[in-house]
Specification:
CATH topology of the largest domain: Jelly Rolls
CATH architecture of the largest domain: Sandwich
Strand order of the largest sheet: 1-2-9-4-7-10
CATH superfamily of the largest domain: Jelly Rolls
Strand content: 15-25%
């Protein structure tokens, strides 16, 4: 398995969290070994060779070869697998608030969904999917994608500094800043902030805070730390160990102990270590 990371263009860096390309001669391992845990980032997925099968919320979804797909923010774990043959696909991960200024569609309409570009983005989605198919190499496809995203961003002016401030505050505090504090810092009510987040992020501030809290410990796992070594910090983020276990299982499908002992998830580990 090869996972390559590409630097987003300067115009896109405040919107795009990461751009990467996955390559394997034998596809992905069985579904219980490859999972995408929620990280607050909506995504574009471009399967170049082979079809990707994903399982989330009890639903089986397929991303077909040579397609273009938008994955809204997910609240639960997604399991991934492919057939055992040559596989290549590209991922573009946006910051929680980064996709809305580019695409201009309410992010709440994409939450917990995988949508074909020609469905969610109408005419240009179909046209751009065809343009991508004309390029064979991954670097050509990535250049093409960045051209499109830059062009879409320049056409719109949909950034919201209130949302940006709140997302950054939640992320920098690993989800510990309260909604009441966000109200105090911004001067806006919880209700108004939740409406903004639905439009720009697709998740409420409370749900996004929970994802950032989880990611604090999930990244520790990716760095090779045992959960025992993180227990001293546990009660700063969760009510008790039962609360942590419940949230961890929702985000990964496994209890912390079973996850560390029985799940490889090398794909997820490499994504985390490079970001």
């Amino acid at each position: 398995m090869k996972l390559s990371f590409i630097q987003p263009r300067s115009q896109l860096r405040s919107h795009i969290h990461s751009v990467w390309a996955f390559e394997s001669s034998v596809g992905m391992a069985p579904a219980d070994s490859n999972l995408a845990a929620p990280n607050g980032c909506p995504k574009l997925i471009i399967p170049c060779e082979n079809t990707i099968t994903s399982v989330a919320n009890g639903q089986v979804r397929q991303s077909s070869e040579q397609g273009l797909y938008f994955v809204g923010n997910q609240e639960n774990v997604t399991l991934l697998h492919t057939s055992p043959k040559k596989t290549r696909f590209i991922g573009v991960e946006f910051y929680p608030h980064g996709a809305y200024p580019i695409f201009g569609i309410p992010m709440v309409e994409t939450t917990n969904r995988l949508l074909a570009a020609d469905t969610v983005f109408s005419n240009w989605g179909r046209e751009f999917t065809e343009i991508l198919r004309n390029h064979e190499r991954l670097d050509q496809k990535i250049d093409c994608i960045q051209n499109l995203l830059t062009d879409l961003l320049q056409r719109r002016s949909l950034q919201n500094h209130i949302v940006e401030f709140c997302v950054e505050s939640l992320r920098n505090s690993n989800g510990l800043i309260s909604i009441r504090e966000l109200e105090r810092h911004t001067g806006y009510t919880r209700r108004y902030l939740e409406l903004l987040f639905k439009e720009h992020v697709g998740l409420s501030p409370k749900v996004l805070a929970g994802i950032f809290r989880f990611q604090r410990f999930y990244q520790g796992w990716a760095q090779g730390k045992s959960f025992d070594s993180l227990k001293d910090e546990l009660y700063d983020y969760y009510y008790d160990q039962a609360h942590f276990t419940k949230e961890f299982k929702r985000m990964t499908g496994f209890s912390p102990q079973r996850f560390t002992l029985g799940v490889d998830n090398e794909f997820g580990r490499r994504l985390l270590l490079q970001q």
